[in-house]
Amino acid sequence: MINIFLASVMGTVLHLKRRCFACRREQVIKPSERHKTVKCKFCGANIQPSKN
Ligand SMILES: [Zn+2]
Fold it and tell me: 42 and 25 in contact (C-beta within 8 Å)?
């Protein structure tokens, strides 16, 4: 049971990670911004939401 819980948490965290195409750094975005274009906090480039 604990493994299923951990797997779902990991999946959620990974889903909220987005890699900037400009500086190639990963960052965690807010759940509310999951389907929106966000600004990279490192270089300020717009990062499109992933298509899934
Ligand atoms: Zn960037």
Answer: yes
What are the E-state strand segments in the chain? 17-19, 26-28, 38-39, 46-47
* Element spanning 12, H or E: helix 2-15
Residues with CB under 5 A from ligand 1 (ion): 20, 22-23, 40, 42-43, 45
Domain ranges of the chain: 2-47
Taking only the tens place, the pLDDT of each residue in 8-41 is 776 666 678 899 999 999 999 998 998 899 999 9
- Ligand 1 mean position to 49 CA, how many Å? 14
Instruction: Tell me if 2 sits within 8 A of 10, measured CB to CB.
Output: no
Cα–Cα distance measured from residue 18 to residue 14, given in angstroms and rounded to the nearest whole number: 8
